[in-house]
Amino acid sequence: MLSLLVIVPAIFGVLALYSKDLRIDLVLLVGTALAHLLATAYLWTGESGPELDRLLELDVPGLLFLSITSVIFLSASLYTIPYILHGTHDKPAALQRFIPCLLWFLSAMTLVAVTQHLALMWAAVEGTTLASAPLVYFYRRRGALEATWKYLLVCSVGIALALLGTFFLGIAAAGSSVGASDLTLSGLSRAAPFMARPWLKAAFVLALVGYGTKMGLAPLHTWLPDTHSEAPSPVSALLSGALLNCAFLAILRFYQVCLASGDSQFARTLLIVLGMASLLLASAFMLSQRDYKRLFAYSSIENMGIMSVGMGLGGAASYGALLHAVNHSLCKAGLFFLAGNVLRSFGTTLARDVRGVLGRLPETGVLLLALFLAIGGVPPFGPFWSEFLIFQSALAGAHAWLGVLFVSLLGLAFLGMAGVLLPMLSGPGSIQERRSAESRLSVLPPLALASAALVMGLYIPSFLADALHRAAGMLGG
Amino acid sequence: MADLLLHLALLLVVPPLLLGVIQKTKAWFAGRRGAPLLQPYFDLWKLLRKGAVYSRTTTWLFRAGPIVSLATALCAGLVLPLAAASSPLGFSGDVILFVGLLGLGRFFTMAAALDTGSSFEGMGASREAAFSAFAEPALLLCLAILCIPARSLSLGDALGALSSAPPGFSHPAYLAAALGLFAVLLAENSRIPVDDPTTHLELTMIHEGMVLDHGGPDLAFVLSGSAVKLFVVGALLVRVVLPPPAQSGLAGVGLLLVGQLGLAVGVGCVESMMARLRLPRVPQFLVGASVLAGIGLAALLYRGAP
Amino acid sequence: MVGTILFAIALLGLSALAAALLTRFDRASLTIGTTGSVIACVTGASGALASLVRRGSSALRGTWSLPLGEPHVAMDALSAFFLLCIFVVSGLAAVYASGYLPTYIGRRRLGPAVALFNLLVAAMAGLVIARDGILFLMNWEVMSFASFFLVTFENDREDVRRAGMSYLVASQFGVVFLFILFVLLGRSSGTYDFDRFAATGGLANACFLLAVVGFGSKAGFWPLHFWLPEAHPAAPSHVSALMSGVMIKLGIYGLLRTLTFLGPPAVWWSTVLLLLGAISGLAGIVHALAQRDLKRRLAYSSVENIGLIALGIGLGLLGQSRGNALVSFFGYSGALLHVLNHGLMKGLLFQGAGSVIHATGTRSLESLGGLYRKMPTTALSFLVGSVAISGLPPLNGFAGEWLIYVGAFHGAERLPTAGAVPALVALPVLALIGGLAAACFVATFGTVFLGLPRTEGVPRAHEAGLAMRSTMGIGSLLCVAIGLWPAGALRLVVPAVALVSEVPALASDATTPLFAISRAAFVLGLLVALLALLRRALLRGREVTQGVTWGCGYAAPDSRMQYTASSFVQPLLAPFAPITHVRVDEEGPSGYFPRDARYHEEIGDVGERFLVPGTRRVVHLLSQLRVIQQGRVQLYVVYIVATLVALLVFELMGAGK
Amino acid sequence: MTGYADFLLLVVLVIDLYIVATSRLASCVHASAFQGVALALLPLALWAPGYAGGVDPQVLHIALMSVGTLIVKALVIPQLVLRAIREANVRREVEPFVSLHLSVLIAALLVGVSFWMASVLVLPMPAPTTLLVPVAFATVLVGFLVLVSRKKAVTQVVGYLMLENGIFIFGQTLVRQIPFAVELGILLDLLVGVFVMGIAIHHISRAFDHIDTELLSALKD
Question: Within a 10 A sphere around the Cβ of C23, how many other Cβ atoms?
Answer without folding.
Answer: 18
